[in-house]
UniProtKB/TrEMBL annotation:
PANTHER family: PURINE PERMEASE C1399.01C-RELATED
Family to which the UniProt record says this protein belongs: Belongs to the nucleobase:cation symporter-2 (NCS2) (TC 2.A.40) family.
Membrane topology of the entry: Multi-pass membrane protein
Subcellular localization(s) per the UniProt record: Cell membrane
Entry keyword Transmembrane helix: yes
Keyword Secreted: no
Transmembrane residue ranges: 21-44, 50-68, 80-99, 105-123, 130-152, 164-184, 191-213, 233-253, 317-339, 345-364, 376-394, 406-424
Domain of life: Bacteria
Stated name of the protein: Nucleobase:cation symporter-2 family protein
Signal peptide start-end: none
Amino acid sequence: MEKLLYGVEDRPPNLITTTLLSLQHLLAALGGIIAVPLVFGGALKLPADQIVALVNAALLGSGIVTIIQCRGVGPVGIRLPCVMGTSFAFVGAGISVGLEHGVPGILGSSLVGSLVMIIGSFFMPVIRRFFPHTVTSVVVIMIGLSLTPVAVDWAAGGVGSGNYGAVGNLAIAGFVLALVIAFVQWGKGIISASAVVLGIVCGYLLCLALGLIDFTQVREAPVFAIPQPLHFGMSFPVSGIVAMSIAFLVTIVETTGTFMALGAATQTPIRGKRLASGMLCDGVGSAFAAVMSSPPVSTFAQNVGVVSLTGVASRHVVMLTGVMLLAAGLFPVLGALVVTIPLPVLGGAGLMMFATIIAAGIRMLGGSADSRRSNLIIAVSLGCGLAVTVRPDLLSKMPAFVREVFGSGITVGALVAVGLNLLLPGREVEAPEEDMDAVATPLPVTSVAT
């Protein structure tokens, strides 16, 4: 097992190093955090000022909940390097609610629906036992497989772009990818640890020199703005509460898998109690986000790739990322500046990060029993998860409830793996909570430490 460059409790030697390492997580997450309120705004045809208010609230809420998740406040927070942000898992349900009841309906339904995750957090020690080593390995791989197409679309210029797949886009993405590989392989110390942000900066400078950067959003963004609690008000439609509650149930499965993947990347055994603290933060954080006029939040899987690739597992680093997100919410011009990064630049770095999660999952599978039963669980669950990931239209004729529950490849892969592990003879069982210290050894991760 390779040693991490910075462990969970380690602190980098100075503020400059910490800032560089934190910036990597910000760049990996910011696009996703901003995208969700933009999708809501576009689907509901909101005026520009209301979309800006949604974006600011999402950034501020994500920053505050990230700090709590990393630092921990009493029983709330997993105390690992988790970046929290608005989640696409809620987009389908949110839009359906919003088209009928507007933004107040989305926020009110989210507030009530978050109780599902809050209550569910108290059962996490039991839920944890449904995720033995083989199941966890499958979920980690599915996280990487589900995120990789996102990076590919970024590298090609973005879905719906008129120049999707253009040679120039792929060349820029390839340039950034090559730089990240070089920094990881041959860089030393802070250079290797900051490989992602250095690759993105170099790619950004190249695009700037080629005149590919559009600063319109920066010029139009307000310099300072304070998100107002209950800015849109709230309403509590029964149909909306049911829809968002289902979305929260699905998110419990995805977030459990993400926490397990993060445990592998940080070489930290994830026991039921720690899992419960993280899930409680997700639920409380989503309730707080709703009050702050933001869509619900959840743990970002893409940042697991940053930890796996760089070997930087310090929660103190990601706490600073939370501060940066908070600042971006108060100073929208900062967030607008980051949004100017061309998608191919993010795609080159993202491809490396997300593929690293796949590699970590494959290494984890090496510790699974080599038996017909294990191979069957792995093959079927990955196949079903990939079916939804690469062919999302597969469920287009299904009822809305089915699309909501099974629309994510991560969720499908996890549910199939858990189900097969329960149904097939010779069930693999996670050790009881009190025995975890004796059996839970840190899982291998991809690290750049030398």
